[in-house]
Design brief:
two-stranded antiparallel sheet; 2 strands; 78% helix
Protein backbone atom coordinates (compact mmCIF):
# COMPACT_ATOMS: atom_id res chain seq x y z
CA UNK A 1 0.00 0.00 0.00
CA UNK A 2 2.76 2.45 0.98
CA UNK A 3 4.56 1.69 -2.27
CA UNK A 4 1.49 2.66 -4.30
CA UNK A 5 0.99 5.89 -2.34
CA UNK A 6 4.67 6.81 -2.63
CA UNK A 7 4.57 6.08 -6.35
CA UNK A 8 1.58 8.42 -6.79
CA UNK A 9 3.23 11.13 -4.73
CA UNK A 10 6.38 10.87 -6.78
CA UNK A 11 4.49 11.05 -10.07
CA UNK A 12 2.35 14.07 -9.11
CA UNK A 13 5.17 16.01 -7.41
CA UNK A 14 6.10 17.96 -10.58
CA UNK A 15 2.48 19.07 -10.95
CA UNK A 16 2.22 20.06 -7.29
CA UNK A 17 5.45 22.04 -7.61
CA UNK A 18 4.06 23.87 -10.64
CA UNK A 19 1.06 24.92 -8.55
CA UNK A 20 2.96 25.84 -5.41
CA UNK A 21 5.62 27.77 -7.37
CA UNK A 22 3.31 29.13 -10.05
CA UNK A 23 4.27 32.43 -11.66
CA UNK A 24 0.87 33.89 -10.73
CA UNK A 25 2.15 34.69 -7.25
CA UNK A 26 4.92 36.86 -8.69
CA UNK A 27 2.44 39.23 -10.36
CA UNK A 28 0.20 39.85 -7.34
CA UNK A 29 1.61 43.18 -6.23
CA UNK A 30 -1.38 45.16 -5.00
CA UNK A 31 -5.01 44.90 -3.93
CA UNK A 32 -6.30 45.06 -7.50
CA UNK A 33 -4.14 42.08 -8.48
CA UNK A 34 -5.32 40.21 -5.40
CA UNK A 35 -8.95 40.87 -6.34
CA UNK A 36 -8.44 39.19 -9.72
CA UNK A 37 -6.93 36.16 -7.98
CA UNK A 38 -9.85 35.90 -5.55
CA UNK A 39 -12.45 36.27 -8.32
CA UNK A 40 -11.08 33.05 -9.84
CA UNK A 41 -10.06 31.20 -6.67
CA UNK A 42 -13.52 31.54 -5.11
CA UNK A 43 -14.83 28.79 -7.38
CA UNK A 44 -12.25 26.35 -6.03
CA UNK A 45 -13.26 27.34 -2.51
CA UNK A 46 -16.92 26.71 -3.37
CA UNK A 47 -16.66 23.43 -5.26
CA UNK A 48 -14.44 22.02 -2.51
CA UNK A 49 -17.52 22.18 -0.26
CA UNK A 50 -19.55 20.24 -2.83
CA UNK A 51 -16.81 17.60 -3.00
CA UNK A 52 -16.71 17.35 0.79
CA UNK A 53 -20.50 17.04 1.07
CA UNK A 54 -20.49 14.33 -1.59
CA UNK A 55 -17.99 12.37 0.51
CA UNK A 56 -20.17 12.86 3.57
CA UNK A 57 -23.23 11.55 1.71
CA UNK A 58 -21.38 8.51 0.38
CA UNK A 59 -19.41 7.58 3.48
CA UNK A 60 -21.89 8.28 6.29
CA UNK A 61 -25.58 7.69 6.85
CA UNK A 62 -27.54 10.86 6.07
CA UNK A 63 -30.95 9.23 5.73
CA UNK A 64 -33.64 7.85 8.03
CA UNK A 65 -33.63 5.30 9.55
CA UNK A 66 -30.02 5.78 10.60
CA UNK A 67 -27.63 2.87 10.59
CA UNK A 68 -23.85 2.66 11.02
CA UNK A 69 -22.27 3.00 7.60
CA UNK A 70 -18.64 2.38 6.77
CA UNK A 71 -15.70 2.99 9.07
CA UNK A 72 -16.27 5.06 12.21
CA UNK A 73 -12.82 6.60 11.65
CA UNK A 74 -13.87 7.75 8.19
CA UNK A 75 -17.20 9.06 9.49
CA UNK A 76 -15.30 11.05 12.11
CA UNK A 77 -12.96 12.53 9.51
CA UNK A 78 -15.69 13.64 7.14
CA UNK A 79 -18.08 14.93 9.80
CA UNK A 80 -15.30 16.82 11.57
CA UNK A 81 -14.14 18.52 8.39
CA UNK A 82 -17.72 19.32 7.33
CA UNK A 83 -18.39 20.92 10.72
CA UNK A 84 -15.25 23.04 10.47
CA UNK A 85 -15.81 24.01 6.84
CA UNK A 86 -19.56 24.56 7.04
CA UNK A 87 -20.03 26.30 10.40
CA UNK A 88 -16.70 27.58 11.70
CA UNK A 89 -16.23 30.83 13.63
CA UNK A 90 -15.02 33.95 11.84
CA UNK A 91 -12.75 36.59 13.33
CA UNK A 92 -15.77 38.31 14.89
CA UNK A 93 -16.97 35.15 16.61
CA UNK A 94 -19.84 34.60 14.16
CA UNK A 95 -20.66 31.13 12.82
CA UNK A 96 -19.99 30.95 9.08
CA UNK A 97 -18.79 28.51 6.46
CA UNK A 98 -15.30 29.02 5.08
CA UNK A 99 -16.90 29.85 1.75
CA UNK A 100 -18.92 32.63 3.38
CA UNK A 101 -15.75 33.87 5.08
CA UNK A 102 -14.11 34.01 1.67
CA UNK A 103 -17.02 36.03 0.28
CA UNK A 104 -16.62 38.43 3.21
CA UNK A 105 -12.93 38.75 2.35
CA UNK A 106 -13.81 39.52 -1.27
CA UNK A 107 -16.36 42.14 -0.27
CA UNK A 108 -13.89 43.77 2.11
CA UNK A 109 -11.44 44.46 -0.71
CA UNK A 110 -14.22 45.28 -3.22
CA UNK A 111 -13.70 42.20 -5.36
CA UNK A 112 -16.60 41.14 -7.57
CA UNK A 113 -18.85 38.61 -5.80
CA UNK A 114 -21.88 39.04 -8.05
CA UNK A 115 -20.85 36.38 -10.57
CA UNK A 116 -20.36 33.61 -8.02
CA UNK A 117 -23.54 34.61 -6.17
CA UNK A 118 -25.42 34.54 -9.49
CA UNK A 119 -24.06 31.01 -10.00
CA UNK A 120 -25.44 29.86 -6.66
CA UNK A 121 -28.80 31.55 -7.23
CA UNK A 122 -29.15 29.91 -10.63
CA UNK A 123 -28.11 26.52 -9.26
CA UNK A 124 -30.90 26.64 -6.68
CA UNK A 125 -33.50 26.80 -9.46
CA UNK A 126 -31.81 24.70 -12.20
CA UNK A 127 -29.67 22.21 -10.25
CA UNK A 128 -27.50 22.06 -13.37
CA UNK A 129 -23.89 23.08 -12.90
CA UNK A 130 -23.03 23.49 -16.60
CA UNK A 131 -26.01 25.64 -17.58
CA UNK A 132 -25.76 27.66 -14.35
CA UNK A 133 -22.08 28.39 -14.98
CA UNK A 134 -22.91 29.53 -18.51
CA UNK A 135 -25.85 31.69 -17.44
CA UNK A 136 -23.89 33.36 -14.65
CA UNK A 137 -20.97 33.97 -17.03
CA UNK A 138 -18.17 32.76 -14.77
CA UNK A 139 -14.66 32.74 -16.28
CA UNK A 140 -14.20 29.88 -18.75
CA UNK A 141 -11.25 28.36 -16.89
CA UNK A 142 -13.18 28.46 -13.61
CA UNK A 143 -16.09 26.82 -15.37
CA UNK A 144 -13.82 24.01 -16.61
CA UNK A 145 -12.33 23.57 -13.15
CA UNK A 146 -15.73 23.27 -11.49
CA UNK A 147 -17.01 21.01 -14.27
CA UNK A 148 -14.09 18.64 -13.70
CA UNK A 149 -14.82 18.42 -9.98
CA UNK A 150 -18.49 17.76 -10.57
CA UNK A 151 -17.69 15.07 -13.12
CA UNK A 152 -15.91 13.20 -10.32
CA UNK A 153 -18.81 13.85 -7.95
CA UNK A 154 -21.38 12.64 -10.49
CA UNK A 155 -19.35 9.50 -11.20
CA UNK A 156 -20.46 8.22 -7.77
CA UNK A 157 -17.01 6.67 -7.46
CA UNK A 158 -16.20 7.54 -3.90
CA UNK A 159 -12.58 6.39 -4.21
CA UNK A 160 -12.03 9.07 -6.88
CA UNK A 161 -13.68 11.73 -4.73
CA UNK A 162 -11.49 10.75 -1.78
CA UNK A 163 -8.38 10.70 -3.98
CA UNK A 164 -8.74 14.24 -5.36
CA UNK A 165 -9.76 15.43 -1.90
CA UNK A 166 -6.62 13.89 -0.37
CA UNK A 167 -4.01 14.66 -3.02
CA UNK A 168 -5.41 17.54 -5.02
CA UNK A 169 -7.07 20.18 -2.88
CA UNK A 170 -6.30 20.66 0.79
CA UNK A 171 -2.65 21.73 0.96
CA UNK A 172 -2.00 23.65 -2.25
CA UNK A 173 -1.87 27.19 -0.80
CA UNK A 174 1.87 27.94 -0.70
CA UNK A 175 3.78 29.83 1.96
CA UNK A 176 4.70 32.26 -0.82
CA UNK A 177 1.08 33.38 -1.08
CA UNK A 178 0.67 33.63 2.70
CA UNK A 179 3.77 35.81 2.90
CA UNK A 180 2.48 38.00 0.06
CA UNK A 181 -0.86 38.54 1.81
CA UNK A 182 0.90 39.36 5.09
CA UNK A 183 2.98 42.01 3.33
CA UNK A 184 -0.10 43.57 1.74
CA UNK A 185 -1.82 43.44 5.12
CA UNK A 186 0.88 45.70 6.56
CA UNK A 187 -0.13 48.37 4.04
CA UNK A 188 -3.86 47.71 3.74
CA UNK A 189 -5.14 46.07 6.94
CA UNK A 190 -8.62 47.48 6.42
CA UNK A 191 -8.86 45.76 3.03
CA UNK A 192 -7.53 42.26 3.61
CA UNK A 193 -7.85 41.43 7.31
CA UNK A 194 -10.67 39.01 6.44
CA UNK A 195 -8.54 37.22 3.84
CA UNK A 196 -5.62 37.02 6.26
CA UNK A 197 -7.86 35.40 8.87
CA UNK A 198 -9.32 32.98 6.31
CA UNK A 199 -5.86 31.81 5.25
CA UNK A 200 -4.63 31.46 8.84
CA UNK A 201 -7.74 29.49 9.78
CA UNK A 202 -7.39 27.32 6.67
CA UNK A 203 -3.83 26.43 7.66
CA UNK A 204 -4.85 25.79 11.26
CA UNK A 205 -7.67 23.33 10.52
CA UNK A 206 -5.75 21.54 7.76
CA UNK A 207 -2.58 21.29 9.80
CA UNK A 208 -3.92 18.66 12.20
CA UNK A 209 -4.64 15.04 11.46
CA UNK A 210 -6.83 15.69 8.41
CA UNK A 211 -4.15 14.78 5.89
CA UNK A 212 -3.29 11.49 7.54
CA UNK A 213 -6.93 10.50 7.99
CA UNK A 214 -7.80 11.51 4.44
CA UNK A 215 -4.97 9.35 3.13
CA UNK A 216 -6.18 6.45 5.22
CA UNK A 217 -9.68 6.97 3.85
CA UNK A 218 -8.41 6.79 0.26
CA UNK A 219 -6.29 3.76 1.09
CA UNK A 220 -9.26 1.98 2.63
CA UNK A 221 -11.43 2.70 -0.40
CA UNK A 222 -8.86 1.59 -2.98
CA UNK A 223 -7.53 -1.30 -0.91
CA UNK A 224 -5.22 -3.60 -2.86
CA UNK A 225 -7.04 -3.07 -6.13
CA UNK A 226 -4.46 -1.75 -8.60
CA UNK A 227 -7.19 -0.77 -11.05
CA UNK A 228 -8.82 1.50 -8.46
CA UNK A 229 -5.47 3.09 -7.61
CA UNK A 230 -4.72 3.68 -11.28
CA UNK A 231 -8.12 5.30 -11.76
CA UNK A 232 -7.52 7.42 -8.66
CA UNK A 233 -4.12 8.54 -9.93
CA UNK A 234 -5.63 9.60 -13.26
CA UNK A 235 -8.26 11.70 -11.45
CA UNK A 236 -5.62 13.31 -9.22
CA UNK A 237 -3.45 14.26 -12.20
CA UNK A 238 -6.43 15.78 -14.02
CA UNK A 239 -7.39 17.80 -10.93
CA UNK A 240 -3.87 19.19 -10.57
CA UNK A 241 -3.65 20.00 -14.28
CA UNK A 242 -6.95 21.89 -14.06
CA UNK A 243 -5.66 23.88 -11.09
CA UNK A 244 -2.60 24.86 -13.15
CA UNK A 245 -4.90 25.99 -15.98
CA UNK A 246 -6.92 28.03 -13.49
CA UNK A 247 -3.75 29.70 -12.18
CA UNK A 248 -2.57 30.32 -15.77
CA UNK A 249 -5.86 32.12 -16.41
CA UNK A 250 -5.40 34.29 -13.33
CA UNK A 251 -1.84 35.12 -14.38
CA UNK A 252 -2.97 36.12 -17.87
CA UNK A 253 -5.87 38.20 -16.54
CA UNK A 254 -3.63 40.12 -14.13
CA UNK A 255 -1.07 40.79 -16.87
CA UNK A 256 -3.84 41.89 -19.22
CA UNK A 257 -5.19 44.30 -16.61
CA UNK A 258 -1.76 45.70 -15.77
CA UNK A 259 -0.80 46.17 -19.42
CA UNK A 260 -4.08 47.99 -20.02
CA UNK A 261 -3.37 50.25 -17.03
CA UNK A 262 0.09 51.06 -18.37
CA UNK A 263 -1.38 51.99 -21.74
CA UNK A 264 -3.91 54.25 -20.03
CA UNK A 265 -1.13 56.01 -18.10
CA UNK A 266 0.97 56.47 -21.24
CA UNK A 267 -2.05 57.79 -23.12
CA UNK A 268 -2.74 60.31 -20.37
CA UNK A 269 0.87 61.49 -20.52
CA UNK A 270 0.54 62.03 -24.26
CA UNK A 271 -2.68 64.04 -23.76
CA UNK A 272 -1.06 66.20 -21.09
Amino acid sequence: MNEIVNSIRQEIEPLRNKIINHKVYSVINDIDDLKVFMEYHVYAVWDFMSLLKSLQINLTCVSIPWYPKGSAETRYLINTIVAEEECDIDQNGIRKSHFEMYLDAMKQCNANTKTVQDLLSTLITTNNICSSATISNIPQEAKEFVKSTFNVIKSNKVHLQAAIFTFGREDLIPGMFISLVNKLYQKFPESISNLKYYLERHIEVDGGSHGELALQMTSNLCGNDKALWLEAKTAIIETLQNRIKLWDAVYNEINKRNNHSKKEINYQKIIV
